[in-house]
Give the backbone structure.
Amino acid sequence: MNTEERAGDWIQTASGRAFWPLDPRPEDVCIEDIAHALAHQCRFSGHCRSFYSVAQHSVLVSRQCAEENRLWGLLHDAAEAYVCDVPRPLKPLLFGYKAIEDKVAAVVADRFGLPREMPEEIKRIDSAILADEAAQIMAAPPRSWHLPEPPLGVAIHPVSASSAKQMFLQEFFELAGVAKEAAE
């Protein structure tokens, strides 16, 4: 493929693929790249008591969703594999970031046959698990977080990046019901 035809520049993924964050396409999305990148990204910009990955968080969200929303729950942060996670207080201040993240999320949804609009259930569960995470893996806060949802009571037991990657991929292949080769 001629890179001149794409907008912006590209990043190299863990599998060696090129991915254009400003011009994403479904065929550029690879579940192994998503699992690898999210497994190596620590939640809360690394400010938790021990390493706790976005991949593990995503698996926990998925397991709390209704059956029809579990794959969306697993992939709700998949765009972060390509554009990285930005702390919530900063996202609205970074001009253009949200539009780029939303475009990548839409392409991920297209790649895996999901509706582009994230189900409300996932937003609610994501916020509720945030309350569990705050209570279990963060230092005592200097002030209340004022979270929109009460905790779900999900036990958080952080695992290594390699274990989180395996958990994520196992969850994906169980939910997607496809052979590994079909996802590549």
Summary: Strands lie at 11-12, 18-19. The CA atoms of residues 39 and 165 lie 5 Å apart.
